[in-house]
Predict the 3D structure of the following.
Amino acid sequence: MKHRKILLSENEIPEKWYNIIADMPNKPLPPLNPATLEPIGPEALAPLFPMELIKQEVTPEKWVTIPDEVRNIYSLWRPTPLYRAYGLEKALDTPAKIYYKYEGVSPSGSHKPNTAVAQAYYNKQEGVKTITTETGAGQWGSALAFACKHFKINCEVYMVKLSYEHKPYRKTMMNTWGAKVFPSPSDATQIGKKILAENPDTTGSLGIAISEAIERAASSDDIKYALGSVLNHVKLHQTVVGQEALKQMEKAGDLPDIVIAPFGGGSNFAGLAFPFLRLNLEEGRKIRCIASEPASCPKLTRGEFRYDFGDTGGMTPLLPMYTLGHNFVPAPIHAGGLRYHGAGVIVSQLLKDQLIEAIAHDNLEVFEAGVTFAQAEGIIPAPEATHGIATVIREAEKCKQEGVSKTILFNLCGHGNFDMKAYEDYFAGNIQKHELSEEEIKASLAKLNTPTI
Amino acid sequence: MKHRKILLSENEIPEKWYNIIADMPNKPLPPLNPATLEPIGPEALAPLFPMELIKQEVTPEKWVTIPDEVRNIYSLWRPTPLYRAYGLEKALDTPAKIYYKYEGVSPSGSHKPNTAVAQAYYNKQEGVKTITTETGAGQWGSALAFACKHFKINCEVYMVKLSYEHKPYRKTMMNTWGAKVFPSPSDATQIGKKILAENPDTTGSLGIAISEAIERAASSDDIKYALGSVLNHVKLHQTVVGQEALKQMEKAGDLPDIVIAPFGGGSNFAGLAFPFLRLNLEEGRKIRCIASEPASCPKLTRGEFRYDFGDTGGMTPLLPMYTLGHNFVPAPIHAGGLRYHGAGVIVSQLLKDQLIEAIAHDNLEVFEAGVTFAQAEGIIPAPEATHGIATVIREAEKCKQEGVSKTILFNLCGHGNFDMKAYEDYFAGNIQKHELSEEEIKASLAKLNTPTI
């Protein structure tokens, strides 16, 4: 019998996070103060984040030690299994060897707790009593709720009201771990009250939810804010994924030719790909690392590399990123985790330097890929994860056409147990191909008056 | 760092299923023909099940070889992890050592695929083209849908209409694996059409769904029927759970004093407990094996040991079982998998012979236990699984009171990702304590005119 799973023991949970900045030939450009357009330092983040996370945001050190307390919570589900996808290979009749790292075994069902646990830990260390955050579909909010429960920190989640009403089960999951969940806009904040007064029937937006979470965090030294992607320290924490995968591939006697992961803000992709990119940067290997994004939100493949705000409201520093413009509103696809207008600064610089690749997939292609995977491998993937699978299928088919056997590794970042409505819509024929015109993208970028690069 | 998980490699997936009948001091009494009250032979089952499963239903052999093809599909998720519940031990401040076997890592999220895969395999071997079954909450139906997809067999699931409408996500899960799901009563069967004609607005029942699935199976040699619990061969297949757990406990250098599992029809309990009971029967060990049932459906703790029908409609042979009467309608608790009026014959005989124990828990106690577990260990348990956890907590508290450290093992048979509505109801205060009176039970049993034992 051929083995499907390559497992590690708990003492093989990585002891350090990998900081790719140390190895980058061109370091990311500095963030700018939007008023002065001068570079800003890390101290600007102090009201929102604990000092240790701010240090990690800017550290040039190549390796950052993972505290034992964090590794201890990681061990509830880490190391995660690496699978050889024999079923998918057979279904695709491809000579390619396909592997996937499965992050859906975490309690909240995705890779998000890798950073949520670390962030909760550092907040606890610095005496923070409450962490606030926003959530759309709920993956991030539930990961943070889980993490806060372990460190006995209060967790306040501002959940976009439309999601709060349409996806009550993610909310209940957060409640089970003790978090308070507010439909946003809420009357727990000034900005929420103001918006509700002006428009009592609003269904909310991620931008509003961020504003509420930040207002709460800024209101007291005991309260901090947490973000689930985009930032450097979030990417750093996710590198446990790729480090484990590298060890597991070595155990399998294999090394990937191609590494693939879905792309929203970048932490999912960074988590799997950076430890493999390290081999390219250190040893001159040629592992292709491909970020898979939705065609309806194609910042990497069709966006512009320039300074832009990280949030819709324009409250963050200006960041050097691939962006569709901070006011860009992507179509309401089910892969809510990929509906972000920009890419984190590290990944943006890597793409600019052609050290990584990107590809965009249409909404119909990714659901077809998701169902193919579920039928071949059993696990029903989250809509975000199906984007990576679509890229895998394209590369595996290329192998078949060319008669070559490449080794492909991808990040199955989460299961779809809370996303069955998306599959239901797909089976009912309610998922449409969505063509984003060149004009729409140009129009969104034309609104920017931020510095070009 | 203390290790939480004890893992096995894929070549440690058991090679045989364990048949406890071979070791039972008193063998189960035979099933009876309801018309003649004469013992009936296995041939009576031939229209519904493939011959190999019928053989397994009555085999006296102690070990039954697991086909390689079944072990190959098992390896998609097996061996499942055994956890040391350090978090729960700490939360309970108990000197007890608590372990749990986690079956929620299967693609459908419970232990059910252990038998679904085996049943689909034997049907395929005998040329069966379609398998029919009924499902209530959907755990069993989705496990069978997953299994049938792997063996390219059509799967027809008759899903109680109320569940079909209220739990659309389980239905979509089955669709994703290619199953046809009918709201029952449906117009795919004569009995369904008849019931719909008489009562177009009926919300259905498990009894009706069984009747529809059986009618379809009896209509053609190409179509067979599958059952997810109660029967001997189902219990047999589940023993992979306990065999792995035994090996894992040995690796941990421990042996349980107490083994606990939820009880519906018996296969969950049998799966974990029988391989440990084997040690009692073979070597005279004194491992306590406790079945945890809901107080609203207490066949083991308050039922009568006598002959009764296995189904509500009275179409099955008469079986010697602990029963509340085949017309007993339990309260609509969320642990749908435990709402069955009787216990499988093997477990019934074992209880009669005082070789196992049983305990009933109120609905409020089990949700409290579920939330305690989720907060301490991360994983949110299925409502069925919370019954086992409630027993664990009682035993762990007893250890604390008595100042002794016992080793407790339980079966975390599934996650609650598709049951968040249940937790929502609990948090909203909509779960009530349910007292079943002695009169209600007596009244149900008084309706029986089947043979006593």
Remarks:
- The mean pLDDT of chain B is 95.
- Chain B touches chain A at residues 1, 3-5, 7, 9-11, 68, 71-72, 75-77, 87, 105-107, 109, 146, 149-150, 168-169, 172-173, 175-178, 371, 374-375, 377-380, 415, 417-418, 420-421, 423-424, 427 (CB under 8 Å).
